[in-house]
Amino acid sequence: MEFEKHWRLNLCILLRELRTKIYKPMPLKKFVLRDPKTRLICVSDFRDRIVHHALINVLQHIFEPIFIFDSHASRKGKGTVTALKRFDKFKRKVSKNGKQTNDARNENDVKGYAFKADIRHYFQTVDHEVLLRIISKRVNDTGVLWLIKIILNNYESNTPRKGMPLGNWTSQFFANIYLNELDQFVKHNLKAKYYIRYVDDFIILHNSKTVLQEYEQSIKKFLSTELKLELHPDKCQIIPLKRGISLLGFRVFYHHKLPRKRNIRKIKGRLKEYLNSYKKGLLSAADILETLQGWSAYAMQGNTYNLRRRLSNEIEDDLMRTTQRSRSS
Description:
Elements: H1 2-5, H2 7-19, E1 29-34, E2 38-43, H3 46-63, H4 80-94, E3 113-118, H5 122-125, H6 128-136, H7 142-153, H8 169-189, E4 194-198, E5 201-206, H9 209-227, E6 237-240, E7 245-247, E8 250-252, E9 257-259, H10 261-279, H11 285-299, H12 305-328
């Protein structure tokens, strides 16, 4: 609102600063988010976010066409829903439509394996020089490259010229550019058919555990030598599909998927906080119901009908009781 009061003047000032290359972003505002992991979130000043969106508007047309289909984060038309649907398709392919193991005890004991991994401290360890080298292969405009350097250098990390702030739109887009190198390596060099990536988490499905072990070693070497990254030692494992795969908040089996218990605890805790705020007059019932509907749309990807109905009934009952008490008092 402050920027919009004199938006023409403010945009003209921004334009002049960018053309004359005297533009300097404001220091990032930082706060800690526990959701459930502790993360340091950085928020850019509003005028800087205008610059970020203008920059991405240019870069998106250049890089979006070269991203693989199964990169699902921070892209139009993609997201957790599309990633889960692709996983469902891939598990059917790898297991040959649910062919069961020799020692099957139930209908979910199907053949096949998943190599599940993520990158250790990804956003803190992205190398600026490597990122700029990747971008400069397709962008030769000196003004654009100068602006990217300015944005990257606005983030103060423990290691100079390393890291990007969580919370910036540019960071999300640069994250996809950086790991597109991994995507291309996995798809074209390793020729892995069933590969999905969501930010720095990725998964490869195959009917052979030995092949996945070979993929793991090749990926470790590629990340280290080409991108100066490493796999998280505690979060990389090859899992039989029959055990169920933890993916984007769900435990996915062949015939069903269930939300992880910590995600259920998280939404219950959030709704409890919102109800307390509602009782104090700090939130409206519409705000609470909107949050519940948003979570229900996500949970709908799993077998959660009874859970969603029970949670909805509990919240509606609490809201009704609170409203009745306030009226009677």
